[in-house]
Amino acid sequence: MTTGRMSVRWRDDALPLALLGPAVLYLLLLIVLPMVQALVLAFQGDDGTFTLEHLRRMTGDVAFRDAIRNTLVLLILIVPAQIVLALVMALLVHSRIRGHEWFLYVYAIPLAISDLAAGILWLSVFTQNGYLNTVLQALGIIKEPIVYLSYENIAMVIGAIVIAESWRATALVLVILVAGLQLIPRDYFEAADLFGASRLRRTVHVVIPLLRPSLQSALIIRTIFAFTTFAAVFALAGRNLPVVAGEAYNWSVVARDPHVAAAYALVLLALAGAMTMVYLRVLGTSETQRAR
Amino acid sequence: MNARSIVIVLALVITACSTQGTPSGGAAATDQGSGFVFASTQFTPTTEQEAMRTKILAGYKGAPVDFITDAEGVILDRITAEAKAGGAGKVGLIGLENGQFGSLISGLQDLGSTMDKYKGIPADFVGLGKLGTATQYYVPWMQATYFLAVNKKALPYLPSGADVNALTYDQLITWGKNITDKTGKRMIGLPAGNNSLLHRLLQGYFYPSYTGGLVTTYKSADAETMWGAIKELWKYTNPQSTTYAFMQEPLQSEEVWIGFDHAARLINVLKAKPDDFVAVPAPAGPKGRYFMTVLVGLAIPKTTANQAGAAALIDYLLQPSTQIATLRENSFFPVVKVDIPGDLNPGLKLEADAVAKQAGAKDAKPVPLPVGLGAKGGDLNKAMVDTFQRIVVKGEDIRTVLNEQAALVQKAITDAGATCWGPDGSSTGPCQVK
Questions:
Q1: With the C-alpha atoms ordered B53, B59, B60, B64, is the resulting torsion angle positive or negative?
Q2: CATH of the domain at B131
Q3: Beta strand B36-40 with B65-69: parallel, antiparallel or unpaired?
Q4: B243 at the A interface (CB within 8 A)?
Q5: What is the ipTM score, two decimals?
Q6: What is the pLDDT of residues B361-419, one digit of tens each?
Q7: CB contact, 8 Å: B417 with chain A?
Q8: Which residues in B lie closer than 8 A to residue A149 (C-beta atoms)?
Q9: What is the CATH number of domain A68-118+148-291?
């Protein structure tokens, strides 16, 4: 082997590594390192020794069970609704019916608004003397304002949050699905048309199976976001509806205990990790399938 | 959490990114040393920040000052980080509430030698600035308190024989009941949402007024009576209260008629509708009319890069004209002797009257913010707010909850090593729940 050849081979090997370098560095510094720090914080006592005290404080806290339950309830209500909505919207955008090019822009508007701003916006709709009650009163549908955001009616509070979250974040799923739709070669649709498939059959048997990889990414991303849902809940529910991310914030900023906050962050990590595994198993698109 | 406070949070994020390099103090004619940061937990609403930068600090002719403000945690983290890093920090002056200084003590300068310059600060306030030690860690800067703002529409429902300027908690409950009976609405409002100051109402008003203490009496029989009374009051309290951070918005939209909150969280509605509202002293309980004095102080970190500049800024902020400007713009009351001007905004006048009536009531008893808890102050606040949540909102058994939560209160106090303060009297070791 000559030296020239070796250096070429070395360069061939080094290039992918060099290209991966920045991403790996980024992940190490901004994801892995803080994760390790959180782990240390959650299990380290003031004297630097290992302790389960912080975990005990978290699980013994008034809001702990409620926070886990509420987070899961919101997840179950928000994610499927958004996936279905986004799928319908994506098909509409993709359908090339008149004005279809405008749908994407209109649907994407809420994406440009921060989640906290969206929460405030919906608060001004749902608060007792807010827009919704004002309109309903003006139309004569109700006489007295309805209190939607009362601790006495948690179902209504959850409903308001689901509406606010769906409005804000469905477009995120939509963008992924539209991109997925555009990746599907037109030949498949033409073939389906050739065999006389109706629009519905085409959607069910051609589009959705081919959209599976995109659906999987959308589900994973949306689920992780649903776990960290916080701002809209903060705005609309106040103290009525503790969620895991909100408790992490409260422990860190209000109670100023980074240890318990880190413990909550680990709960989030575990929940999100578990759900991602489930998605990868259930919707698993193996390499061979993708290659086909 | 209400809309306004969220807007504030948003605005803070934006200003936090943009305040760098925008000195707000007057331009210095001569070299006054390097510019520095004045970090505070006060004046977080954007309008108050603006007023601070463009009006209150406008007359200051020293080194360029960059005023930044944020939630307690953020500001304390920044100051602590600078202290840990060593060397000369950017933060030259700190403006915090009395109770927020605790964890910073080791990084603060002794200001004892400068105190003689500032005349007319009440001795109590000067004493609080020592944070339970012999060293003067901060100079009192401004003060505030809590009281009731009342829509005049509520006045016809006052229980017979009750004087709105000398209410008792029982009368407040009956008042709320009268309104609910006649209008079908629950028109009392308590700030019980995220970012609210409910813990202060419990620490400085309900607890001492009913039990004559706070920590020592946390699970006493008097405390049981008090929680029973709060539950009764809650029946006539707007159920949206668990989302309220500031009472001024629900008062302005008339979701509630009677709101109990911090002066700075009521001022907007009083300024907007001075003719529709009255501001009255907090109610009295069986043990007296206890009220909380919020004292905000100024301290210089040891890491300051411009010692003389920070000291000059304290001088400026304590001048009577600056103290009055602070009252006019941001509704915090002076700590030095000043003549309150006659042309005060009508809303501020309402507040000033309420403050005077509250402090001057014959059964009035002032309580300071919790003393000596430092970073554990958050734990005490959480233990108290959770007690409220469990007893009042969730309806759990009072005795059981008090026994359980008292353990958490005791842990916060013991961890901090805080001796008794205010209504609890004094103690040699950490204050004990009895």
A1: positive
A2: 3.40.190.10
A3: parallel
A4: yes
A5: 0.77
A6: 888 888 888 877 777 788 888 899 999 999 999 899 999 999 999 999 999 999 888 88
A7: no
A8: 240, 243
A9: 1.10.3720.10
